[in-house]
């Protein structure tokens, strides 16, 4: 019986440390990457796995402690999987809208980056003209 | 496959609500099944007018396979992204890729975009207004066409099978 607890302690510790390392790497990505779009990758993906590992540790710990499966943490994982991509998408969408500078090595030149003169401020409808 | 009925307009949402309720309560006592089941039937009935038309899921078991595939890919994605971030020489090869969509249903496109964000080195950045092109930012890519093919084979085709056959 003691052996089981020692083993489970090891498993929990492993998940906790793995989760923390992933969270650390994700945060490192924020400082090490060159432009906004590359920085987005760290938090949107790596933090998911980091939090996932911590939650796995939590599930194991409380299942062992309460003597029954404790699956509440699964909900957090599900919500994270739903919300992380959406927020990343919104962030990059607004970055594209503002035409934030890219790293010069970035390949591909989507039309979102090209200047569109139709909607520039100077030519926007002025005065009493109706909103488009 | 479960068919939508008048008193059960969105079977999938109902099942999800019941599961969420049981997980929140952290118990599978009969009372929670009853209360959760009640909520799972009443909430979709009340909120039905707000929802977009739900796509029919034709092959649920493919969905399960897709879920586990994505789960494994998320782990691989994390390891790869960590490698790029920790690379001391910082030799990432970022790129913007325009991905032509074949999916048409909004929900399926959402699923694909979310999957792309969660999996190796890619963030879906923008869905053009015409709903036919997805702009993807890639952290580190060698062959762009190869990557497009990979996304198509691995994610878009299964989604297409699940939703539209």
What descriptive keywords fit this protein?
heterodimer; A: 132 residues; 67% helix; B: 165 residues; mainly alpha; Alpha-Beta Plaits; three-stranded antiparallel sheet; 5 helices; 3 strands; 11% strand; globular
Rg value of chain A? 23 Å
- Across the major sheet of chain B, the strand order is 1-3-2
Strand proportion of chain B, as a percent range, falls in: 5-15%
Shape of chain A: elongated
Number of helices of chain A: 3
From the N-terminal CA to the C-terminal CA of chain B, the straight-line distance is 14 Å
Low-confidence residue ranges of chain B: none
| Derived structural class of chain A | mainly alpha
Number of separate strands of chain A: 0
Give a short account of the largest sheet of chain A. none
Q: Give the overall pLDDT of chain B as a whole number.
A: 77
Element-level helix/strand string of chain B: HHHEHEEH
Question: What series of H and E elements makes up the topology of chain A?
Answer: HHH
Q: Give helix % range of chain A.
A: 55-70%
Total of helices of chain B: 5
How many individual domains of chain A?
Answer: 1
Give the total of beta strands of chain B. 3
Shape descriptor of chain B reads: globular
Number of domains of chain B: 2
Radius of gyration of chain B: 19 Å
Membrane topology (chain B): Multi-pass membrane protein
Transmembrane segments (chain B): 7-24
Protein name (chain B): Multisubunit potassium/proton antiporter PhaE subunit
Main location (chain B): membrane
């Amino acid at each position: 019986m003691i052996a089981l607890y020692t083993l489970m302690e090891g498993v929990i510790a492993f998940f906790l440390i793995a989760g923390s390392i992933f969270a650390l790497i994700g945060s490192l990505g924020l400082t090490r990457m060159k432009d906004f779009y590359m920085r987005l990758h760290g938090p949107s993906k790596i933090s998911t796995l980091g939090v996932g590992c911590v939650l796995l540790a939590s599930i194991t710990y409380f299942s062992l402690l309460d003597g029954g499966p404790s699956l509440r943490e699964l909900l957090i994982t599900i919500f994270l999987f739903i919300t992380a991509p959406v927020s990343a998408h919104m962030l990059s969408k607004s970055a594209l809208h503002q035409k934030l500078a890219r790293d010069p090595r970035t390949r591909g030149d989507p039309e979102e980056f090209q200047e569109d003169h139709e909607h520039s401020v100077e030519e926007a409808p002025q005065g009493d003209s109706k909103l488009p | 496959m479960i068919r939508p009925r008048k008193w059960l307009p969105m079977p999938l949402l109902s099942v999800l609500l019941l599961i969420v309720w049981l997980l929140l309560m952290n118990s599978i006592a009969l009372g929670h099944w009853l209360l959760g089941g009640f909520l799972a039937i009443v909430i979709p009935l009340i909120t039905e007018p707000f929802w977009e038309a739900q796509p029919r899921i034709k092959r649920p078991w493919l969905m399960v396979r897709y879920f586990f595939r994505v789960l494994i890919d998320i782990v691989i994605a994390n390891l790869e992204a960590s490698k790029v971030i920790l690379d001391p020489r910082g030799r990432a090869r970022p790129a913007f890729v325009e991905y032509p969509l074949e999916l048409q249903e909004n929900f399926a496109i959402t699923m694909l975009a979310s999957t792309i964000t969660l999996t190796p080195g890619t963030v879906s950045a923008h869905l053009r207004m015409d709903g036919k092109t997805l702009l993807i930012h890639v952290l580190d890519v060698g062959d762009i066409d190869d990557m497009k093919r990979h996304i198509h084979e691995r994610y878009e085709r299964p989604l297409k099978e699940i939703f539209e056959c």
